[in-house]
Structure formats: structure tokens, C-alpha cells
Amino acid sequence: MKEVNAEIITIGDEILIGQIIDTNSQWISSELDLIGIKVNRKTSIRDEEKAILGELEDAFNRSNLILMTGGLGPTKDDITKKTIAKFFDVELHRDEDILSHVKSLFEKRGRKMNDFNLGQADIPSNCTPLMNYLGTAPGMWFENEGKILVSMPGIPLEMKKLVKKEVIPRLRKFFKTPIIKHKTIKTVGIGESDMMSLIYDWENSLPEHIKLAYLPRLGQVRLRLSGIGNDESILEAELNNWADKLNNYIPKFIFGYENDEIEEIIGKKLASAKLTVATAESCTGGQVASKITSVSGSSAYYKGSVIAYSNDIKIAELKVNSKDIQENGAVSEVVVKQMAENIRLKFNTDIGLSTSGIAGPDGGTEDKPVGTIWIALSDKSGTIAKKLQIGLNREMNIEMTTLSVLNLLRKRLMNWI
To answer: What is the C-alpha separation between 4 and 143, in angstroms, rounded?
Structure first.
């Protein structure tokens, strides 16, 4: 089985100056991964002959599969075809099938063609054209000394159609690739290093053909199992089995798999148990409510919110004791507990959630620096509060607080607190 060293080259000044975001290479990578081809390198270069020629030379020295996007339009700045022809030392020739296709597209759209449009049918003589059914620029497939170069238009809709219909089937035939499958386990409330220590024995027990990657993000860690083999069903069963075993090590931190989001998991639990929730937010300014209500059908379990940003609103709308605010401050256990308890009573829900903190960048003191946050949950069994000490960044403080209060609710619903 031949190992495939793949790389992606995106061409366009608009990418390098930040005018557009390169989403093409990300999408291509995911499609190649599905057929067992891993991308080792991604490069963005200018619409310049020297840059394209230099990158092609380097790419052919280190890779046996190169996929390029961009620079195939009819305008003067689109020089990819001519440059590739120069690289291979061949001439351009007019392909009659492509010409017929281009003429047909213009007729359907009621537009007149000019010489630049006709030039879309000119391709390097050593390529196999790939029909672009959605546009005028064809894809181009080159085989050279056992290596493949594929050049495609940069317009995402056209490129994706070419990859699905033309490129992937050809790659499957040319390279006999293994099957690669992934299984993602999503965790919350534990850091990467602490996670590693808890699952050390499990990770060391993984077979050679299954690898683990830690993918941290703010407040969460995704664990991605990647397996390689020749039988898809056997490989998928293996990954599921190893993911199930992980529940013996970190059951309280796993909240979902693949594309699950914590607010969706919470919503299913609330709906299943026929429980309702309301929120009282200060420092998060409605972010908790926004997350909960982002889930379709959340009206079945979410009743509403009070954004009590000022102390006056905490006192007037949530009946927080003014003396407690004076003595302890709004960012305190006693205040956040009253907020959770009283929003539950005010909206007649099973659960009340609350947040109060110093998001920053101003407002911190020596006793309560920026990033000091209190969160609380109240239900019929009582009220619990938790102090968070996050950081100096306002956006991070708000996001982490929102995630923490949602995780507090998740753990309560799982009877883990």
C-alpha cells in the first residue's frame, strides 16, 4: 500500500491580504481524510509566476499529491494555467468539449462571450480536463512520474463539486489508500494535563493502529481517536469500544460525542425530565440565556431571564437583600445564591441559574480581581454556589462563566452534585 504525501496550495492575493478566508483547504483536507489521505502541508501564495513555479517545484520534491485552488479565471491576473504549462514545458491547446460546455453556459445565462471567455477552454496539453459543471474554468488532472497534481477553481461551490464528482473517485483508483475513521469524545470542566493523568493507563492500552489527540479549547478538551485499517465496520466498532471504556475513567467530564454541544445535551435532559429553568445574569449579560435558547425546542423547558446588571435591578427585580450587597458586594456567594433562588420563584421554574462577577477589564480590587466570578444553581433540594477565578480578558471571562454555569446544570441533571 503506497503512502500518500499530500499538500494543498491556495493561490490568490486576496487570501494573503486577509480579504477572504481560505476555507477551501480546510474542506479539502476533511474530504481527503475520509479516503485515508492525510495532508502534510498547506500553503498560500500570490498570483505570481515566480511564486507558483517555485512552490510547484518544492511540492513535487516532497509530495506525491498536490492539490491547487485558485487563479483559473478569465482575467489577466489569473495566470495559473499558463504557469503550470510553463512548469511542465508544454503548450496550451483548446479543448473542444470544454469549449462546448462554456458556450452552453453562456447561452443558458443569456450572455455574450468574448475572447477571454473562449480562453477558458485552453488547457495544458499534458492534462486530463475535469469538467466543471457549475462554471467555465475546468479542473485539471496531471500525472507526472507517479505523482499527481490537481488544479481547481477557487470558487468553493465549483471546487467542491469537482472534488466530489471527479477528484475523489480518481484518487481512490490511483492510490490504494487505507480507511481512516475518527471518534471524538467531548469533555468539559477539566484541563488537558489533568485529563492526561486520569486516562494515562487507558491511553497506553490503545493498539498501535489507534492514536489519540488532545484538542483543547476554552473550558473544554476534545479527545479524538483516529484509527487506520482496511475494514470500515471493524474499525468503527473498535473506536466505539475504546470510547466506551473511557467512561470508566472520566464519566463526570464527558458530555457528548462528535458534534454534540453542551447546551443540546442539557436541553435533552431537561425535556426528558420535564424540568424548567430560568436565568438571572449579571456579568454574562444574557449569554447563558442565548446558549440555552440556541437549541430548537428550548421553549419547552426555558422560561426566561432577568439581566440584572445593576444592583438596583438585583434588588428590585430579584429581591436581593440590599444589606447583603452593601456588606458583601454584588460579586459574592450570598448575592448569587439569592439571584438563583429568586429567579426560580419569580418565574415558577424547577431550576434557577445565576451569574455575578467582574468581567473586566476594569472594576477589579485587591480582594476581588478581574475574573472573580460567582455562579449558582437553585432547585427544590437547595442552592449551590461556586466561585471561579478566571483571568483578565473580558471575552474569556464571559465565555468561561457561561460554560461553567451550563456545566453546573449538566452535573446537577446527572446527579453528580
So the answer is: 14
> What are the CA-CA distances from residue 287 to residues 188, 226, 295, 372 (Å)?
18, 34, 13, 17
pLDDT tens string 80-106 = 999 999 999 999 999 999 999 888 888
pTM of the entire predicted model: 0.79
Please check whether residue 302 is in contact with residue 352, taking contact to mean a CB–CB distance below 8 angstroms.
no
Cα–Cα dist 299/270, whole Å: 11
The C-alpha atoms of residue 258 and residue 186 are separated, in whole angstroms, by: 7
From the CB of residue 208, how many other CB atoms can be counted at a distance below 10 Å?
Answer: 6
Nearest residue to 280 via CA among 330, 314, 251, 240: 314
The residue type found at 306 is V
Cβ proximity of 365 and 349 under 8 Å? no
Cell numbers for 147, please give them. 505523482
Q: Which residue has the cell 497506553?
A: 204
Residues written for the chain: 417
Q: Is 133 helix (H, G, I), strand (E, B) or coil?
A: coil
Residue pointed to by grid coordinates 492525510 = 38
Per DSSP (E only), the strands in 53-209 are: 65-69, 92-94, 122-124, 128-130, 139-144, 147-152, 179-188
Q: Which residues pair with 67 in a beta bridge?
A: 8, 150
CA distance 290 to 263: 10
277 neighbors 341 (Cβ within 8 angstroms): no
Categorize the per-residue pLDDT at 2 as very low, low, confident or very high, splitting at 50, 70 and 90: low
Cell of 232: 470500515
Cβ-based neighbours of 143, under 8 Å, separated by 6 or more: 128, 174
Give SS3 for 172.
Answer: helix
Band (pLDDT 50/70/90 cuts) for residue 129 is: very high
Q: Is the peptide bond before 361 cis (omega within 30 degrees of 0)?
A: yes
How many other C-beta atoms are found inside a 10 Å radius of the C-beta of residue 277?
28
Return the DSSP state at 66.
E
Please say whether the beta carbons of 220 and 192 come within 8 A: no
Nearest to 283 by CA among 385, 375, 168, 164: 375
> Dihedral sign, CA of 133, 134, 137, 143?
negative
State pLDDT tens for residues 194-231: 999 999 999 999 999 999 999 999 999 999 999 999 89
- Going by pLDDT thresholds of 50, 70 and 90, the confidence category of residue 76 is confident
